[in-house]
Specification:
single chain, 275 residues, alpha/beta, Rossmann fold, 10 helices, 4 strands, 47% helix, 7% strand, globular
Length: 275
């Protein structure tokens, strides 16, 4: 049977439309990424990861603050990024959001806390809480089901915990779980470890001392220069140090970081099991 040119054109048009509909309805896909860092992925890679079960995300919070004359201002950011990747690796099928660098650091006028030292950049607790809320709502909208916040800075703990409690109440019964991973920040196990090694509580200190200096030495040694401590012993100017960072070492930092990562993983798994 001979087909007329008009019929051929019509059939070709129908075939073209069918092919076009097939391509339009086919979602964009991408292979699973080789990184857990969302910032280093395309949106299609994130979409594919979520579709393949990567529905847990870690939001690390650091800080830009004084850390004595021997350690860089971005200490928290380096440490918490490393820890977040370690936690994600242990949990499996978990991605990591970019580090939050701006956190509460004290009052501005007159300056209090770390704000007394040049280079520190702080925001109010209310601003930080709003930032946490916006990040959580964004990740929920993107398809994540379990959103874990870990904060490396003490001043971030309470506003973060309060906002997470508020959002968990709002999203109750919707299959979304936010976790304030306070086990990550709790330093009692690290202090116990160091005291077993013979360190005094005064030497362990509270800030820019053995624990955090050791941790940074383990993952970013260029961020620490212990030789700069020599000029602090005779100075009357505040150094920002509480403790004795000269006792720090990279080997200790590795051990101390492993303690924090294990504690965070245990808390997250325990809370996921009850969801």
């Amino acid at each position: 049977m001979q087909i007329s040119p008009t019929t051929k054109f019509a059939l070709a048009a129908i075939a073209g439309i069918a092919i076009a509909v097939t391509f339009v309805s086919r979602p964009l896909t991408a292979p699973l990424p080789t990184t857990v860092q969302i910032a280093d992925m395309t949106w299609v890679e994130v979409q594919s990861a979520i579709a393949n079960g990567f529905t847990t995300v870690i939001v690390p919070s650091g800080g830009i603050e004084q850390n004595g004359p021997h350690m860089i201002l971005s200490k928290h950011d380096y440490i918490v990024r490393h820890a977040a990747e370690g936690i994600a690796g242990e949990l499996g099928k978990t991605l990591v959001a970019p580090v939050i660098s701006y956190v509460p650091e004290g009052a501005y006028d007159p300056p209090t806390g770390h704000m007394r030292f040049p280079g520190t950049i702080g925001i109010t607790e209310a601003a930080y809480a709003n930032l946490i809320e916006g990040i959580a709502r964004s990740l929920k909208a993107g398809g994540f089901r379990t959103i874990c916040f870990i904060a490396d800075h003490g001043g971030s703990q309470q506003p973060q915990a309060d906002m997470i409690a508020k959002l968990n109440a709002e999203w109750s019964g919707k299959g979304i779980r936010l976790i304030h991973v306070d086990a990550y920040y709790a330093d009692a196990p690290q202090i116990e470890k160091l005291m077993q090694q013979g360190e005094t509580r005064a030497a362990i200190g509270e800030h820019a001392s053995i624990i955090d200096t050791s941790e940074l030495m383990a993952i970013h040694p260029n961020g620490v220069d212990l030789s700069r401590l020599d000029g602090t012993r005779l100075s009357l100017q505040p150094t920002g140090i509480v403790g004795d960072p000269s006792r720090a070492s990279a080997a200790r930092g590795k051990e101390l970081l492993e303690i924090r990562i294990r504690a965070a993983v245990a808390q997250i798994r325990a809370q996921m099991a009850t969801h």
